[in-house]
Amino acid sequence: MSISRVAKFASNITKMSANIPKISLSNGQEMPVVGLGTWRAPDNEVELALEAALKCGYRHIDAAPVYLNEPVIGRTLKRFMDSGEIKREDLFICTKLPPHANRPGSVEKFLRKSLESLQLDYVDLYLIHTPFTVPEVDGEFLRDENGDVVLERDTDHVATWKRMEDMLSMGLTRSIGISNFNQNQIQRILDTSTIKPVSLQIEVHLYLQQKSLIDFCRKNDIVVTAYSPLGSRGIAELHKSAGVTRDIPDLIENPEVIKMASKYGKTPAQILLKYNVQRGLVVIPKSTNESRLRQNIELFDFTLVDEDMDLLAGLNENIRVCDFSFFKGSVWAFISQLPGSFFYLLRFLCLVYFLQN
Hints:
The chain has 357 residues and is α/β, with parallel strands linked by helices. 39% of the residues lie in helices and 11% in strands. It has an 8-stranded parallel β-sheet. Strands 1-2-3 form a 3-stranded antiparallel β-sheet, with no helix packed on it. β1 and β2 (22-24) form a beta hairpin. It is globular and about 55 Å long. It starts with a helix and ends with a helix.
């Protein structure tokens, strides 16, 4: 599919407050095309960032229990709503079923926990966070004697999805979707579901463009949300804490991106975000800096020409930043330290096994 044809996919975008467009989901709900990512930020930073984001126009907030900050997000949202600065119907709040609850009997329990933490009666989008399941324990993930994260081998995507559908009829969420699922796993849900997923959240950025999976989602009317759209170099700290050394590429420093930023009078980050928005994706960059928060939504006063879209499309390198190697003691830590082609081949094979079993 050509870039010009891909751009047409975004034609169902309409304007909303603060000049942030929104895109229609298959169930008629609408999602702002730029949201605030909140992963791996301490409470004080999340609170300040969320306050600044709401004031400069963000209405789409992406949360999850494993980010450990739903309570502070809830307190901040309530303060804004109680003051009358924001109405609930103007917000789009997404949270997720955590890996330790990825089973039918846990869906309602954990969604209600999230609603209590967020101080909301419903969320706008509820996602299954991962296609794999870990044992439900208090505190950190359960690990074996080697330090590997213990996985449950009987994950039933179909049964869990059926329970996700019930959350809609109960009024606890307006939409349901999935995150980090591959094409086979999505197809299994499509083949057996009554209500289809409206959204898939996956890692997408300049060096991991995921064209095949995005095309599959487009054909099935599933909107793709790109997490780590700027590459998330901060994940290097997480790798380091797990004893893993990885060279995380800096997308902001790509020479072609820098050149293009100068051409359009924008920042490199704005070029990277605009590229994926113009592909028809939703992006959820994370920032705790007020200036960058504002820049990250100032994307709608320019358009990348087809030639530049084609150039950026040619920069894909299939480099996955969030590759789970920060699971201390896991096979990822070993694979991530292998050189060259061995690293990419083995990481790919292990990722396929990890996500499909």
